[in-house]
Structures are given as structure tokens and as C-alpha cells.
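Predict the 3D structure for this chain.
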Amino acid sequence: MTDEVPTVELLWWEGCPSWEQALSILRAEMGALGLDPGAVQVREVRTDTDAEQEGFVGSPTVRIDGRDVQPTDGEPAGLTCRIYRLRDGRISPLPDRADLHDGLAQAIEGGGR
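Done. Predicted structure below.
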């Protein structure tokens, strides 16, 4: 176990209605693992230029220690709503809660960097 606290980011775009629910789930998972739920760095992506600079492929995007909780393969950056594939195969506007939990747990154990 490491004493380092993972850096947790949630990037969102105002046109996406699901980012607040994603933030709530993310904060709940952080609390369940003993992390400060208030430590999430919440950042709005406002322009296409910002999206390009951030590598933002849609809202909401969650990164733990700089790593996307569900990496995309070649998705273009842009101001759009994101689609996640849940572990059971369904499509969702929210990341899978288990992916959030596992990503946070791995980062706590030192495997996230």
C-alpha cells in the first residue's frame, strides 16, 4: 500500500446531461475506498481547442492518475457526450461503476502510475 493519493479528474462538457451523475458515482466509490470524495478535480471542457489539448473524447471523462478509466481507441477529441461499454456489454452514458472502483483501487495500491 502506498501513501500517495491518486489524482482523480472528471472532465465534462455542458451539453452532456450525465456528467453530474458520473461525478456522484465517482465520489461514492472514492468514499468507499477511504479517499476524499471532494478531491476530484472537476474541469469543464468548453472549446474544441480545449478538447484537443486535453485529449477529451466526450463527457464525462474520468481519469485516475492521468489514465482514462475506459481508454478509447482512436476516438476523435471533441465536444460530445461519451458512450461507455459496461462490463455486461450494455452501452451507457456513464462509466461502469466497477471500472471506477478497480481504477481507484489499483491507483491506491500503486499500480496507477
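The chain has a mean pLDDT of 93.
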